[in-house]
Amino acid sequence: MKIKALRILPPIAIGRLGSASEPLVNYEIEEDPQHPLDFHRVKGATTFVVDPGTGEIVKAFTPKTISFKEVEADGTERIRPVAPFLEVWALVDRDQLVPLTVDLLRKNGLKPADVKWQVTVANRKVSRRTANKDDEVSAKTPVFSTHEARRLEGHCKNFISDKASIYFGRVQFIKPTEEHPEIRLRFTPGPGDIYGPNLTDDEARSIYGPKPTGDVAQDKKQKKAKPPVWIPPRERAIYDWRKGWLGFENFKPIKPKRARKPSDLTEVGEPEVKGVELERLQARETLPPSLYSLVPPGPCWLNDNVAVSRGYFDDTCDGIVEVRLKLKSGKKLEAAARISSGPPAVVPDTVFLRTLRDDLEQVIYGPWVPPGEKEEATRDRALNIIRRAFDAVRFLNVAVMNGNPVNGRKPLDFDTMPAEEAFDVQRMMRPVVPERTADTLMIMNLHQQVYAALQGGAAPWFAHVLRLPTEVGDFTDHGRRKMPAMMCGADGGYLALTYRQINAILRCSGLPLQPKHPKKQDKRAGLIARNRFEQITHVAAGNPVNSRLEMSVGNCTPGLEMDFRAVWRRLFEGIVLREYDNLVTEMDPSARAAGLPNLAGHRLLRVNGENMFTQMIGPSPANTRTRTTVLGFTGNPDGVAPLEWSNALARVLHESVGKTVTCYFTKTPVWSEQALWESEASHLKVSLKVRPFFEDDTAMISRVLAKPGELTQGLCSPWQNDYRECSCYYWASARPDFVNVQPDEAGLSVGDNWMQKERTGDYVPDDYVDSRLLNYDDLFLEWEKFLRFQIGGVDQDKSPPAPPSASLK
Amino acid sequence: MRKIKLDHLRFLSKRRRGKVKDAADGELDIRPLPDKPDEMTWRDYLIMLLHIGAELEHGLMVQYLYAAYSLDDQTGPAARRRKVAEWRNALLIVAKEEMGHLLTVQNLLCLIGGPVCFDRSHFPADTPYLPFPFRLEPFSTRSLALYVYAEAPESWQRLLRTRKKELRKQFADDLKMVDQLVGDEVRDGHAHTVGQLYERIRDIISDPDKIPDADFRADTYAHQASWDDWGRGYAPPPARPGETAPPEVPVAERSNILIMQMATRTEAIAALNEIGGQGEVPHLKLDRDDEPSHFDRFLRVLDRFQSEGRKWNVVHNVPVNPTTIAPEEKPEGWVSIEDKTSLLWATLFNYRYRALLTYLTHTFRLARLVDTQEPNARGAVMHKIFGEMYNIKAISGILVRRPLKDGPTKGKPACAAPPFELPYTIELPSDEPDCWRRHQDILSASLDICKALLREAGPHFAGLTDAEKKYLRTLQQLDEKAFAWMDLIVTGLLRNGGHTT
User: Which of A763, B143, B327, B376 is the most exposed place for a label (fewest CB within 10 A)?
Assistant: First the structure.
């Protein structure tokens, strides 16, 4: 059996932060066939215990219960990190993929020591914002083939020394044994620490004022009495505070690389750069904006758009694992996979409505239902979507998220999608559905009833209420009530499913697919796609479900484990797009060879006849015929809303990889404003080549599309901010809303806000400043204590023992 | 009962009071609707007519659903299945829109101060107001012809004029076919279209001498059913930028549920015009409205079925008027569901149908008891109604794939079908806790049936498909949760005095 090529499976693995000494055991989730509407059961699966010294798997067992947290003797709570394995598979005769084992190596005249690894990870969150490459934190191991754990120490030019580093975790080449002869590597992410600037006490005092003494009366007298700003401890104070990240303000950039003084951070001033340079720097803003730790704490829009950085870094990262093998023939084989680290999946028994797996499935199969897909398979997918929909509703306080007043308080004060919409389009806030019908258990029950009917064989009848990706800017009641409701998508509008998900339901309903299906399909592409799909969904031995793509938030704003929006930025040769809209941020080195004009600052409006934007519309009583009006406002008079790449480019990607497509750009740069398509003559026509999404015929996302660190660079920095302020609404994933829910005697749902410090059964609406809720510093300092796992919809850190699987007759 | 033979197009002619001149056939006689009994007040008479309207809408809806569920769009070549699905969808669209009409009629009843009506048994099946006797009948040329007839406008001439010149002949031919098909089926006393009834209602409500302003209860507006609550997205999409009208949606996918609240006479007349325009009286609809009427939809389906589908064998072999009543006790003209497992499913269906009607009645009552602006139990009941609609859909789909009778049969086996049998009452008890207990009684019965079907050692289990088992288990769990939820509500009500929610 000759080794022809290598693969690392899975091609993407997700690690999750935690400081517990032992990683999370392996577990699966399964539906209880007797109680199909219950939460999934959490069930232990074969778990490997690795000796950290030797790198050998010394024990394999199946846990009866799953503990997501450890509580130490002193009461310190530590979350167990999720540490996925990456297996090496070999392509052998007849194009079969088989595990690369000691035996297979031996048959090819090789031994485990011939397997060479190298891991490169980075955290670019800060440099993404400051536009300063010297703020990139990256770690690269030497090439290794031994079995000791390798620390991933992230260094950065702007750290105080060459030795200062962020600990991103470790990787370990697992030593094959007789019982476990497979070649694999394990990635254990960092503990979830926050790093920051190296301020002395004097410097801190000059910037933030004197430290509070604890004496309230005396503190009140202090001239600069402010909430204390937490400064990371000395061993994690590694950033040279003069380099720009501390005190960074997106809307008031200083000259790049100029050293700062304390007065820069305390005095109000004008931006030091002007004109196009200012626009270019401000275009680095993320969506949502200012996703970093701020002084004062709180979202920038509550503080006159003042967003002064505290200069924090987190220890998340993403990057590439490479494996190499030189055959006796001299041929060199290589394979790669991606890893990333993110927050814990605090709802470990529930799958989000749109996951990374859904987005990648669409990349592999295209937006349509493959012609060869069996009806039962399509139907199962449709059922699975409905299952996930009612699981999402469970964790969503529907009344509050609908925009209902809460005990007479104004709904605009709370963090909800209708409130977001009101701010975005500068219109009065309206609830999504009639207030009287908005209740969590009511709506969940309705979804479950749909699920029941589909189980019984009924064809889906509700396809007309699914939001098409081109309808995300429809803010009429007709549009806002479409499904999924009350959640946010990658474009900042209401969430839409992937075309592939929508089309599964349309196909079962007998309705035409969206967009129109091409008549001819490339059969060969299907064969490769099937192979890719198997690779991308491969379950490596020992990997719990929360290390996989199906437990990772999909293409939403911005994501938790990865910002999948970032993967589209370089899809067209020659240009680099902003991850969340159609702005060309810079030209790629390949542009020169292709003879492209400088398109930086231009906006991509149309690709192969398809608009990359929609226009926002809202209800209008003025025209009874159209009933709508364009929601334009100062700065965006045409109400232009760019569409998320994952859906907008799905068709282009499926049909035109390696081919040239016709693109239209604005004729001139428009860095800070949206632009509307007018006519071919009004815009700049450029032909661009579509890059492959995957490398060769593997399922590895191309390294050309995203470098290490780029798949997480648009996420919050530090990630804890995501829990406090990010208006993302990833219910039922790592950021639930409504927990411990039960009906009261009026038949309505009561429960707690997941972010509520004290569980009272009285939901505290999320308004950023309520002291009953977790605040930024609670999360920065004690996230492992405060982020409570939800099992069965209630606070639990440990799963109950699952009964043995029973397949019902 | 004497059957009458109608002349070509005769049944479509108009004569409510005496004789009218018809350009095609000269003078034709059509029996008018019965007059108001002298001693009855106009308000009382209007309420009676609205009750008849509600029964009519309800009855038509059920018959359309039955015909739709009898179509098999799951087998055969893909192209054929698509066609069948289109016909099925057309029937379902009309049924959904009839539900909107039914709710609008309830709103009219609220406005006039009459009791709501979700029953359909208060009037004998041969009431002179119905277009044809109530009959659950599978999809066929004849049943379609009956539906065309029921939804036909009073004046074929006026309708004909709305057609493009080149289509007039086709249209006339279609109507001739309807005439021939229906002619022998229409019984004496049923020669009325739905439109005639609504014309009568409209005439009365428009006349201040008959219904004075004081009879209109504007204060019921908030208690009436609203599109916001019930429409579920079934409306034309909004216009996109640059469009001067809402975008075109293929007819087969279009559905426009009209549920109008009203506070005034003017609004009541507008509502009647709207539902008349959508269903039965096309000349009432607004000029700008290009939505096909129910009459148009049925005529189109009939036309296509006749030309393409008659020989396709795409209709489940379901009976006319299925019943759960044993063969020795069933009324004449009804067919007993005899297969034991199918009978249980049919009984389950009846309970879900009953649950739906009981919840519907309850929502109108709860509307007066709860704060209509806050989330409340009425909202939950409303969602349950939709849940029951889904159950009816799912169980119907299961029934038409199950045998009608025990044992082997020759030829295409006869299938069971949804019986749509009414319970002894859908009236609600006087006290609120008892209303919830009524719901619990229905759930208990349903749970017992699920249990009987799912009993592994029982006689039914082995004959269930995986999908049926999954459905039953899911339904069971839903019902158990609903039961517990209602327990909580009853406890709360009793603690608070028992009358309000």
Answer: B327
